[in-house]
Specification:
The structure holds two protein chains of two kinds. By secondary structure, chain A is an alpha+beta fold. In chain A, the strands form seven sheets. Chain A has a seven-stranded mixed β-sheet with strand order 9-10-7-17-14-15-16, sandwiched between helices. In chain A, strands 12, 13, 18, 19, 20 and 21 form a six-stranded mixed β-sheet that branches. Chain A is globular and about 80 Å long. By secondary structure, chain B is α+β, with helices and mostly antiparallel strands. In chain B, a hairpin with a 2-residue loop joins strand 3 and strand 4. In chain B, helix 3 crosses helix 6. The chains are: A alpha+beta, B alpha+beta. Chains A and B meet through helix 8, helix 11 and helix 20 of A and helix 1, helix 3, helix 4, helix 5 and helix 6 of B.
């Protein structure tokens, strides 16, 4: 008794399907979909969604709701079942949540891009509503009345006229035999009646996290399991020339050690997921034995084409400056006559901005457990896109997708890192090679040196103001990475604000070849471009002699051209953006407080992943460039509902703190194609005493469908703090991280 | 080599090289996975356990050093059922995001409260400075430690008073 396919597709077209490609042309189309079979929505992933896939009701009324998507710390394992529970009309105390394996019955099991909320908001509520509809039919029949006479409350079907009621548990099996409704016709609750949505629900795994019982990917243990490390060339794509494997094999605990040729022999797996890097696998009876053996490994590498002086951070910087003086390779967007407008401007401001490569540094290093046996593979993975992982691993091993089972494991952070399949490939390959279940765990050093890095980038900006201080022209030459028509993953840039709010706008791009992988890092693109754009707007405001808040509000009130093109998940809405800027200004007492000397307020506003965010930072800066972010005010618009308010506040505060980590000290540098950083000793995360003591979060609820929160809170904090530093001491920081300019945390 | 350990009040015997870090003994040999690997160099604190009541980085503590009559307490040994005041506070405040670092955070917090029953924000910053959280839950961790201090005071005023002298070592695993 599945939902009929047509009505299912109607639901997803309404809420998930059509949006998917529109929202994530890059992240999803490139990374998750095999080219021959583009994904257009859950419909192409598997069978129709049914309430039975997500909901089990036991005779005692306990409701089990399946969590389908990977939990990576963003709270979906709690928040998405809340949507079902609300419309099913059950008390949360009677709900149990279980993590589902990868299974077509759950539809999309992808997590990233702040996409879980907007793509689940409608379908999961309709799953809950459809199940409630069936329970009403069954309940009415049991009570001998018509469904129209019945209502529901707290897991019971009620018949008000007779005062009788019957629990869901008693009628669940009868409900399962009822004809399914058209889910799009199921009546959903009026938000004013919500008892779960909009009420803080604690994380369902928290009781097990605080006792150490919660299993993360790295904690998988199965009978007969061996442990593996995998040593790759420090230069991406390098291959093994020779190694002392005979010696390694004799070391304590070592069961096997062998060279894996990977792509060297087999080529790419998928065009967007090149596959297994060459390296040396060491398999042992404990991870420590494997790691100790690796420390004795002597390898001669063929480092390959990327081990050149050009593949060094200092060379990139030099080359970017050279390119900025040449004609750009490509015009990304052009409005008006930029040249003439710059020539005619009363004042031209110029700024050269840059941002470094970043590693993800998830606290749980990459890992995967795989068990290959008799042509079948079972995996325990923290992948953010298990469907894509299954496709890619199937091609790598040359087995059908149906021969692969994937258990979705809670991840110790992901931030985009676990879109990469490298660790999944390695575990699967090694298990097959040794014929035993294998847990592969990367060392922190592996993790730092073989990431899919947030791409570095260089921005050469010019802005022109007229005599009244109005912005008339914006020109940006963005020097990024790639070759020819191929831009490195997540290293592209679209025209974004203030495009269409200024009559003359140009975005140019030039590329430099790059020998390391790049990828999605929390709020891809935005995490870097917000600093560039919002700092430069601050420069322009000061040059115009205007208050930074008033200058932004002025820009946003004059859309000089038609609506801007969609940008990373939708289009900036000027009214929503003005409202959050005004809210952040009001809450922070902008322009109304006198601050001590050396303390400044900075504001930044940025739209990404469908969220409108404005943030104000109050920053104290000493003469020795010691910084304390004393207070942060966040004003956010993610639509009409904040589904789990307590978790939402935690997420936003965390995004601010995470953004400050990147801002102050994080930088991955290259030397002859090698990553120079190794561990938290040279790639620092912010520590508690360095974090702001106060981060206040205000949600401006507007009449728009709810959107995600994992990402959009992060980008504005970097420019907000930099703008506050300028307010405090007049220093304009145009290249990150701050540590490069002598700043440290107080 | 054979080593005898006392982990969470129980005797355990392991066969391991003397330089094997306690972290991997706990995880791979004793199947106690609550203690996490994050960096292997003592920089992140995810592997924090108590050795005779003192917080130590198990990634830098060899099995040989841990076996010398020491009592080892891991996150699994803090209470049988998640009712240690720090665990209760962590749940009440809904502290974790991904949760990976939280076992180590809790072990550091328990040690702090054993020595300073009513820590100031500054005390907390100092004691927790070795524990990283990539999700940035520091705001909630600080809040949870203050709450744990309250809960602890409510539950065992006598113990709190003794600990306040600074002479009483943490009674790990004994607090209910």
């Amino acid at each position: 008794m599945a939902l009929d396919r047509r009505s299912f597709l109607k639901v997803t077209a309404l809420a998930g399907g059509g949006m998917l490609l529109g929202l994530y042309p890059e992240a999803q189309a490139q990374e998750t979909a095999p080219p021959a079979k583009p994904r257009t929505g859950p419909g192409s992933v598997g069978a129709p969604l049914t309430p039975q896939a997500f909901i089990r009701i036991a005779p005692d009324g306990i409701v089990t709701i399946m969590a389908a998507r990977p939990e990576i710390g963003q709270g979906v394992k709690t928040m998405l079942p809340m949507l079902i529970a609300e419309e099913l009309d059950v008390e949360w105390a009677n709900v149990r949540v279980e993590q589902g394996d990868l299974d077509a019955k759950y539809g999309i099991q992808f997590t990233g891009g702040s996409f879980a909320t907007p793509s689940s908001w409608e379908p999961l509520r309709r799953i809950g509503g459809s199940a409630r509809y069936l329970l009403v039919l069954a309940g009415a029949q049991s009570l001998g009345v018509t469904p129209e006479e019945c209502t529901t409350s707290a897991g019971k079907v009620l018949h008000a006229a007779s005062g009788r009621s019957i629990g869901y548990g008693e009628i669940a099996s009868k409900a399962a035999a009822m004809p399914l409704p058209d889910p799009s016709a199921v009546k959903l609750k009026d938000p004013k009646d919500y008892k779960v949505i909009g009420h803080t629900i604690h994380g369902v795994d928290v009781p097990d996290i605080v006792t150490g019982r919660q299993k993360f990917g790295i904690d998988v243990s199965i009978p007969g399991m061996l442990y593996a490390v995998y040593q790759k060339c420090p230069v991406f794509g390098g291959t093994v020339a020779s190694a002392n494997l005979a010696e390694i094999k004799k070391l304590p605990g070592v069961r096997d050690a062998f060279v894996v040729k990977g792509v060297e022999e087999h080529g790419d797996v998928l065009p967007s997921d090149p596959g297994l890097e060459p390296g040396i696998a060491i398999v042992a009876t404990s991870w420590w034995y494997a790691q100790s053996a690796r420390n004795k490994l002597k390898v001669k590498w063929n480092e390959g084409r990327w081990a050149t002086a050009e593949q060094s951070s200092t060379a990139f910087e030099k080359r970017a400056i050279e390119l900025s003086k040449k004609a750009p390779e490509k015009t990304v967007h052009l409005d008006g006559d930029v040249k003439a407008a710059l020539a005619g401007a009363a004042r031209v401001v110029e700024g050269a901005y840059s941002h470094p490569f970043l590693a993800h540094a998830t606290l749980e290093p990459q890992n995967c457990t795989a068990h290959y046996k008799d042509g079948k593979l079972e995996m325990w993975s923290t992948s953010q896109m298990p469907q894509g992982t299954r496709t890619a691993v199937a091609r790598l091993l040359g087995i059908p997708e149906t021969s692969i089972t994937i258990h979705i494991m809670r991840a110790g952070g992901a931030f985009g890192r676990r879109f990469g399949n490298d660790f999944n490939f390695e575990a699967a390959w090694i298990s097959k090679a040794v014929g035993a279940p294998v847990k592969l765990v990367w060392s922190r050093e592996d993790d730092t040196a073989h990431d899919y890095y947030r791409a570095a980038g260089f921005h050469f900006l010019k802005g022109g103001l007229d005599k009244s201080g109005k912005l008339t022209v914006w020109e940006s030459h963005f020097v990024s990475f790639g070759e020819g028509s191929h831009t490195a993953l997540a290293a592209n840039m679209d025209a974004e604000f203030p495009v269409r709010y200024v009559p003359n706008y140009a975005l140019y791009q030039s590329l430099m070849p790059l020998g390391v992988r790049t990828g999605y890092w929390r709020a891809p693109g935005s995490n870097a471009y917000a600093h560039v754009i919002e700092s430069f707007i601050d420069e322009l405001a000061h040059a115009a002699g205007k208050d930074p808040v008033a200058f932004r509000l002025g820009l946003l009130s004059v859309p000089t051209l038609p609506a801007p093109p969609p940008q990373r998940g939708g289009a900036l809405d000027p009214a929503r953006m003005r409202a959050v800027i005004e809210l952040a200004a009001e809450k922070s007492g902008w322009g109304k407080r006198t601050l001590p000397k050396g303390t400044g307020l900075g504001i930044a506003a940025y739209f990404s992943h469908m969220g409108h965010f404005a943030e104000v930072a109050q920053v104290r800066v000493t003469a020795q460039k010691k910084i304390k972010v004393e207070h942060v005010w966040v004003a956010a618009d993610i639509g009409s509902q904040v589904i789990n308010p307590g978790a939402a506040e935690n997420m936003v505060q965390g995004a601010i703190i995470d953004g400050l980590s990147a801002l102050m000290g994080q930088e991955v540098t290259l030397d002859h194609g090698r990553v120079q950083q190794t561990n938290f000793s040279d790639y620092p995360l912010i520590r508690m005493h360095q974090a702001p003591p106060k981060i206040e979060v205000f949600f401006n609820k507007t009449n728009h469908s709810p959107t995600g929160l994992g990402e959009p809170a992060l980008p504005p904090i970097l420019p907000a703090v930099c703008n506050a530093i300028f307010a405090a001491n007049g220093d304009r920081v145009r290249s990150l991280p701050l540590a490069k300019h002598g700043y440290t945390w107080e | 080599m054979h080593f005898k350990l006392i982990v969470n009040g129980k005797a355990a015997q392991v066969d391991a090289p003397p330089d094997m870090p306690l972290l991997w003994v706990l995880r791979d040999l004793l199947e106690l996975h609550g203690t996490k690997y994050g960096c292997g160099i003592g920089a992140c604190g995810a592997c924090t356990v108590h050795l005779n009541g003192e917080p130590v980085r198990s990634c830098l503590t060899t099995v040989e050093a841990a076996a010398k009559g020491g009592h080892i307490t891991t996150i699994e040994g803090l209470s049988a059922d998640g009712t240690h005041p720090v665990q209760l506070a962590w749940k009440e405040v809904d502290t974790p995001q991904c949760g990976y670092c939280q076992g180590g955070q809790i072990m550091s917090a328990v040690a702090l409260l054993a020595n300073k029953p009513h820590p100031t924000d500054k005390d907390i910053d100092t004691a927790m400075g070795g524990n990283l959280c990539r999700c940035g839950t520091y705001t909630r961790i600080r809040q949870a430690i203050h709450r744990a201090a309250e809960l602890k005071a409510e539950h065992s005023p006598g113990t709190t008073k003794a600990a306040a002298t600074g002479k009483t070592k943490s009674t790990v695993g004994g607090s209910r």
